[in-house]
Amino acid sequence: MASFVTDAYPTGSRQKTEHGSSELLTALDDSAFTKRHGVIYGTALAGHFLDGFVINTTGVVLPGVIATYHITSKQAGYLSSALFLGMLVGAAIAGIVSDRLGRKFPLAVCLLIFAGFSVLAALSWSYPSLMAARFCQGIGLGAEIAVVLPYITEFVPSRHRAPLVTTATAAWLVGLPVSALVGTAVVPTFGWRSMFYIGIAPVVVSVVMLAVLPESVRYLLRKQRHAEAQRVVFALSTARPAPSAARPADTAANVPSAPEQRTAGSVRKLLTGRYLKFTVSLWFMELCAGAFLYGLSTWLPSILEKKGIGLIGSLAYTAIITAAGVLGALLAGYVAKRVGRRPAIVCGLLLSGLLCLWWGAVSTTLPVIVIGCVATFFGSGIAGSTLFVYASELYPTFNRATGLGWAAAWQKAGGLVIPTVIGWVLALHSSNYIFFVLFAVISLLAGISGLVATFETKGKTIEQIAAFLEPDRTHNVGESLVGAAASPSSPSSPSSPHPVTGFTAQYDQETGR
């Protein structure tokens, strides 16, 4: 829909007035959440939901695949691992591509990839062919996660950033129980292949994305495509930028330095300076979070079956337990906004770990469901969703998708390793309690890592976060804003014992970030 941006100027706004990059970003961040925001956000949400839906088909189809291809539990674990290996590759590559080529087109292509290979999975003629299809499908699934969350982070008003990113994660998590419920309805009648035919639906959303979504304003400004950025801001924002005396393309705030041009989409930059300890901790937490989330969604139906629950019952109970994670994700944004990212992540992980020890010790159906719901509420819901908010805020625009993509890649590495490990454990006829102890240890270790090294981003714009973590960079838009705020008379001036941040307690209270 080409007119989405260009025809959205208010009366009298179609003029040659120039606006600085800082003014455009301020208008974008301070806007109310409008219907146009809703259209963009809803479209991105639909694609993210389908990503979660398609991922969880592994757990739904696994019993049928085992019966069709006559494979062992150990071999069955390889199917999920093939998917997550593809997701790891997709997440790692897509972030780099998106930081260099933009958000809109790569996002639409991601959906086409995992929808297209869903057809091949449905038509698979052998177990290796199914594994190959799921690997290729995983590339698109992992890539979508790496692109969509930076995109949302960069266009939503700042005060709504945490709730909207966690709601997007909730939409992704909704795909997990919905997949289980759909599987309960269609697999007994139409067979496991029917789930992959349903997985073709993302093609429609991909086409809508190409028609509706504008490019990221922050990406456009970094590429010095100022006119396009200005049109998008006027289309979206209810706050109007003040005129600037100089064209932003000619100011230091908008011109990427030569090193930045070379390091856009750089993994190395994630591991330098102040970013090093935060990146390593983030990657470890995502590794554990992926093991927790994907290990449960893949093997929980089979574990429940081993407890004497039938196929339909095990799928239904898995849907209920994973749905608790959705509720946690919906509340995570408000928790993170109120208490901060670090407390939400750390407390969620530690509580989930302790609950898993209790979960494995009970045997009757009701306690299994209730404790499982609470464990996933805190683990994959509160902590897991807040981790993605944190990852989408931590890095500067020129490296944001790369940073989140590699964080997501480590999450997929957890999903790659844990299903195979569980398959080996179950093949040894181990106690079911070992299954839950494993998830308890994973969550507790992640919580300790978060306690030791998590940078609190609450109350800061994404430019201010980059300014703190890279104090020597003065060419970025956000850092120019911070530098202006940090005058010698300011409490955040270089002479102050506190680092330059450019925000005050009153500012935090007024914005509610």
UniProtKB/TrEMBL annotation:
Residues 503-513 have a biased composition (Polar residues). One of its GO terms (molecular function) is transmembrane transporter activity. One of its GO terms (cellular component) is plasma membrane. Keywords: Membrane, Transmembrane, Transmembrane helix, Transport. Residues 484-495 have a biased composition (Low complexity). The keyword Transmembrane applies. It is a multi-pass membrane protein. It holds the Pfam family Sugar_tr. The chain crosses the membrane at residues 53-72, 78-98, 105-125, 131-152, 164-188, 194-213, 275-296, 308-332, 344-362, 368-391, 403-427, 433-455. InterPro entries: MFS_dom, MFS_sugar_transport-like, MFS_trans_sf. The keyword Transcription does not apply. It is found in: Cell membrane. Gene3D superfamilies: MFS general substrate transporter like domains. Residues 40-458 form the Major facilitator superfamily (MFS) profile domain. Residues 1-21, 480-513 are annotated as: Disordered. CDD domains: MFS_SV2_like (cd17316). It comes from the Bacteria. This is Major facilitator superfamily (MFS) profile domain-containing protein.
